[in-house]
Amino acid sequence: MRDPGTPTLEQLRVFVAVIDYGSFSKAARELHRTQSVISYTIANLEAQLNVALFDRSKRKPTLTEAGKALLADARTVGLKVDAMRARAKTLAQGLEAEVSIAVDVMFPNCRLVAALQAFQQRFPTVALRLRIEALGAVMHLVGQRTCQIGIAGPMLDFADTFQSQPAGSITMLPVAAPSHPLAQMEGIIPTEIARDYTQLVLTDRSELTAGQNFGVVAVRDWRLGDLGAKHMLLRNGLGWGSMPEEMIREDLDTGRLVQLKLEHLISGEYTLHMINRLDEAPGQAGRWLMQYLLDHSPQS
């Protein structure tokens, strides 16, 4: 048997497209090719590799065992080439005109302000667009190319189209106003008791976290899209919930909020990740901002 040949990038992209779109005909429409061209391309790829990639006995394209093994390689090659092209584009363009970033609402304000001030001093001619969002909204904005850079929270698995780097963590504390019944209880508070009181929960505007309840134990909860609103309601005794320690440190010191010792949670770590799309690498100014934020990331 002869050794496998070298497939073309076009063949690999067609192979991945057939799986991603679910059929030869749909892949043809998305790639603006005829179905016969798609079929011919796959047949040539199989001939190049000396293996059958699809089980032809079934109506829907179904991968053989060899096809399953090689699909991951095909995706990796495509992503690497896209990343190389994106990097070459930024090198050719030099300093970009604009940098856009989405930041998780939990990220400490003082660190964000310092980073933005440093960026403006370093790159006064580069426009900076900022979005502050919660949970899955950051990943959604980067995935949709609305923002080039994101500082995202811990709740999601990042697809292989993203580059992800650890960007520190934040200590989260469950708190309530001193007038709240839970704050007046001594010792460890059982979960079944905390469950009976309204919990204030941060939510987001994306579909990526739909149906997921992160740390929600209460029978009744209020869903809030704004961390400032949650902070205000907590201080006024209208529920209990977790907040970033740095944001509420003054409240704890002055007694406006009290840390709760819950059976299921006394404190927690909210991990952060720096993300960007592999096929849309940030330019010189964007890379500088990413590195600055990584170098000054919060550490619990």
UniProtKB/TrEMBL annotation:
UniProt record similarity statement: Belongs to the LysR transcriptional regulatory family.
Domain of life the protein comes from: Bacteria
Name of this chain's protein: LysR-type regulator
GO molecular function, one term: transcription cis-regulatory region binding
One Pfam family named in its UniProt record: LysR_substrate
SUPFAM superfamilies according to UniProt: Periplasmic binding protein-like II, Winged helix' DNA-binding domain
InterPro entries to which the protein is assigned, alphabetical: LysR_HTH_N, LysR_subst-bd, WH-like_DNA-bd_sf, WH_DNA-bd_sf
Domain HTH lysR-type residues, every copy: 7-64
